[in-house]
Design goal:
Number of helices: 0
Number of strands: 28
Radius of gyration: 19 Å
Order of helices and strands: EEEEEEEEEEEEEEEEEEEEEEEEEEEE
Low-confidence stretches: none
Strand content: over 45%
CATH topology: AttH-like fold
Largest sheet: 10 strands, antiparallel
Oligomer: single chain
Number of domains: 1
Structural class: mainly beta
CATH class: Mainly Beta
Length: 330
């Protein structure tokens, strides 16, 4: 894939993919001023901001999503010591102002409010403030921006395309409050940003995996994807070593057993042999007429190895994260 090094608009004025936007980047360089929206354009524009946070105590997921004809917020908390799960996924039809997602380059402020849940992700010059307010869960976190990210444009056609930004190696600190109990967040915690903007087919499946940790004094970030990029020149596969991104062409092989929540997940390729062993698996499902989705997401510890382009092989012991299969009709 060609590397994008200067700011660029994702779309042309007629809503089609800007050919100059296709490629990958090491920074958030894509803006989205000409994404067409509404019934006239088939309700195909999808925009979201997702933050996942893994700590020694908790799993946290937060999403603000605008699906063109609907908006949805998601808040997911798993308490590792007790197995307690709190899951909120209010849906607004039509979206109105329930989800506000800017189309400009960062710094951004994304805001979502509906169904008793308020989410706010606010960039400053040094990182991102993450806030959630709900009856049972409160979040006050800060994730400094450090090192490279992976931005990729997936071109299914000139009318159907997606920009994804994955920032998988963010340290994070602050507090998460669950049913009145305050959990400090700091050592051993990390945050991942998944930003999406694009024009989607109605039905699509994907694999996604992320990881972060320190092994033998080296900070590693792992970003892996599959299925949804097959048949295109794009891949979202990368290894981040002490803040430096290495992007890889070519599809990876994902293998797993969805019938067994305890089963390991495997990912293999020329530069990677990785296994995630779960401590928890989440199954999330939505069926609301136009919007239907099902996601199996496993959280756990990575093992195996990943190799940089110069041949240096890194042990994945000490890297933690998640892996998923998602099926969406939207």
């Amino acid at each position: 894939m060609e590397e994008i090094k200067e700011p660029v608009q994702l779309s042309l004025g007629d809503g089609k993919l800007n050919p100059a936007a296709a490629g990958f980047s090491r920074a958030p360089l894509h803006a989205f001023a000409d994404l067409l929206q509404g019934l006239r354009h088939g309700w195909r524009t999808k925009r979201w901001e997702y933050w996942g946070v893994l700590t020694p105590d908790l799993v946290l997921g937060m999403t603000i999503a605008h699906l063109d004809y609907a908006a949805t917020l998601q808040l997911y908390v798993y308490e590792r010591a007790t197995g307690k799960v709190i899951s909120l996924a209010p849906l607004a039809l039509p979206p109105g102002s329930s989800a506000v997602l800017p189309d400009t380059l960062p710094p951004l402020t994304a805001v979502g409010t509906t169904g008793g849940l308020h989410l706010r992700f606010h960039d400053d010059d040094g990182g991102t403030h993450l806030r959630a307010e709900s009856p049972r869960v409160g979040v006050e976190l800060y994730a400094p921006a450090e090192g490279d990210v992976l931005g990729v444009v997936v071109p299914w056609s000139d009318a159907r395309y997606q920009y994804t930004l994955k920032d998988v190696a963010r340290r994070v600190s602050g507090t998460i409050t669950v049913d009145g109990r305050e959990y400090p967040v700091g050592d051993g915690a990390f945050a991942v940003l998944d930003r999406g903007r694009g024009r989607w087919p109605y039905s699509r499946r994907w694999n996604w995996a992320a990881g972060y940790g320190t092994t033998e004094g080296t900070r590693l970030g792992l970003q892996l994807g599959g299925m949804w990029t097959a048949g295109t020149p794009a891949t979202e596969n990368a290894l981040i070593v002490d803040g430096v991104l290495h992007h890889y062409d070519g599809e990876l092989e994902f293998s797993y057993d969805l019938t067994d929540p305890q089963a390991p997940w495997h990912v293999r390729g020329d530069w990677l042999e990785a296994t995630l062993t779960p401590f928890h698996r989440r199954l999330a499902a939505t069926n609301a007429v136009l919007v239907a989705s099902k996601t199996w997401q496993a959280f756990g510890a990575w093992s195996g190895w990943a190799a940089a382009p110069d041949g240096t092989r890194y042990d994945l012991e000490g890297v933690h994260g998640w892996i998923e299969e998602a099926r969406n009709r939207w």
